[in-house]
Amino acid sequence: MIGVEDWAEIRRLHRAEGLSARAVARQLGISRGTVARALASDRPPVYQRPLKGSAVDAFEPAIRELLQQTPTMPATVIAERIGWTRGLTILKERVRELRPAYLPVDPVSRTVYEPGELAQCDLWFPAVDIPLGYGHSGRPPVLVMVSGYSRMITARMLPSRRTADLIDGHWRLLSGWQAVPKTLVWDNEAGVGRGRPTSEFAALAGLLATRLLFCRPRDPEAKGLVERANGYLETSFLPGRTFTGPGDFNTQLTAWLQIANRRRHRTIDARPVDRWETDKAAMLAIPPVDPPNWWPLRTRLGRDHYIRVDTCDYSVHPRAIGHLVTVQADTEQITVTCGDDIVARHARCWARHQSITDPEHTAAAQLLRGEAIHQRAARAATARTALLAADDLGVTVEQRELTTYDRIFTLIEGGAAKEDP
């Protein structure tokens, strides 16, 4: 059998050079029959080895019978049922060839996203320790959102995965987009909801006029866009970077995303920024309201004059002791109000179990404590004076126990100290 090069040369000599079949055979030293067959075929020669029987052939009827009963039966089980004693490789190949004939055809459709249709959301936990202050470090979650049509990525590190922090994170990311996708896809994150949204997230969805779609449990493929984005952040953003804190992390991440969203996306064969305007135009408008603080904490401030948010305690001006105060917290700031008066404002502490004290609150507490001590001392002096006066006028012990100091003074002034009260 001649090779492809000889076949090509025979055809060239005959067609291009005009040589006869006899002349071609003489020049190449091959038979005229070989030349004739090469000129008659318009396809290059292919070597085909004669087919030999396989050891699996004798077992094929039994394999087909088992697959007809149970199309999904594993090859290892089939080998056991038919008494197979040879290597499993050739048996698995034959089962792989036969199985489709017994399985129903179940084609999958390619997912195509329309502009403004949805964005997938997830929490990414970067594998690096972030300094959180007060000698603490940790790995806070990063909220990641990916728009389906344009593949635009946005992300932000949050103090925790609590509902309030997740809502604030959504608000900040969507405010950066200045648009709201018609659907937000989530897995069963506890702070968002399991199968159905929490009341807080249902209220957020109502404010944004969007829909929350929850994936089935243990189905990461349902939000593959954001899962791949998490991997992209892990392998392309994180390596070789150091961070001084959460603020520095968010600053570096924002700058990097501006570059990442300008790179060509292989799946859509386009840059996310080139498709973003079309995507954004089909989204909903962001509501013209302040960030949502619908569930502020209301409590009566105790003498300790500290309030707790997450695991940290924050000082409050002591003038609010005994009054109802309202605590509003987001990912950056803690604000406490008493009526219309702001009695505390602190930067959000990302470290755990810390006490954050405003020096002004400490000074005010010391001043008020000194005034309280002087008032108690004055009352004690007044009481001693009253008791001495009562002794001089002969007020009995029983009368002292049954009357107040004010009553004693009344008795003294009325000259009736020895009358029954």
Topology pattern, helix = H, strand = E: HHHHHHEEEEEHEHEHHHEEEEEEEHHH
SS element count, helices: 14
Total beta strands: 14
Shape: elongated
Helix content: 40-55%
Give me the CATH superfamily of the largest domain: Ribonuclease H-like superfamily/Ribonuclease H
Q: Could you describe the 3D structure shown?
A:
It is a single chain. With 421 residues, this protein is of the alpha+beta class. The chain has five domains: 37 residues; 46 residues; 164 residues, Ribonuclease H-like superfamily/Ribonuclease H (Nucleotidyltransferase, domain 5, 2-Layer Sandwich); 61 residues, no CATH class; 52 residues, no CATH class. Helices cover 41% and strands 16% of the residues. The chain contains 14 helices and 14 strands. The strands form four sheets. The protein has a five-stranded mixed sheet, with helices on both faces. A four-stranded antiparallel sheet has the order 8-11-12-13, with no helix packed on it. Helix 2 packs across helix 3 and helix 12 runs parallel beside helix 14. The longest helix has 35 residues. The radius of gyration is 41 Å and the shape is elongated. The C terminus is likely disordered.
